[in-house]
Amino acid sequence: MLQKKICMIGAFATGKTSLVARYVQGIYSDKYQTTVGVKIDKKSVAVGGQDLNLILWDIHGEDEFQKIRMSYLRGSAAYILVVDGTRRDTLGTVFQLQTKVEDTIGKVPFITIFNKYDLSQDWEIGEDDLEELSQRQWTYCLGSARTGLGVEECFIKLAQMMI
């Protein structure tokens, strides 16, 4: 069985921990949990006839007070950029982080998930933003850690990109 390290990366409070909990354990909690440093989970999946052990590194969010330690990224086979659809500034953060990550670990597969789609009436992300990702040739998906919408599909799509 292959083991693949995947890092969850994004701004503070975008839902990285909730996405991992939804994917790995199938649960969601309204209680906010700030990540200190890194939290590691594991999920086994079969993709394209290949058994994979996904080692998910939920890295603390980046904000004006705390920057992501790039050393956490070493050995990553892929990463997920998490955007909070209700906070447009988190998209700018992932643009900056993607450049830093690529400078640190090189070109590896990644996907962007626009989280909190269950709150789409409050979204600050528009069609122009999604078009910008398409122009950059970034793969993205819409999801909700709360409802589970798109979460499994997003992780599976990334796993397929790694194989």
UniProtKB/TrEMBL annotation:
Keywords: GTP-binding, Nucleotide-binding. GO terms for molecular function: GTP binding; GTPase activity. SUPFAM superfamilies: P-loop containing nucleoside triphosphate hydrolases (SSF52540). InterPro entries: P-loop_NTPase (IPR027417), Rab (IPR050227), Small_GTP-bd (IPR005225), Small_GTPase (IPR001806). It comes from the Bacteria. It holds the Pfam family Ras. The keyword Nucleotide-binding applies. PANTHER family: RAS-RELATED PROTEIN RAB. This is Small GTP-binding protein. It comes from Acaryochloris marina (strain MBIC 11017). The lineage of its organism: Bacteria, Bacillati, Cyanobacteriota, Cyanophyceae, Acaryochloridales.
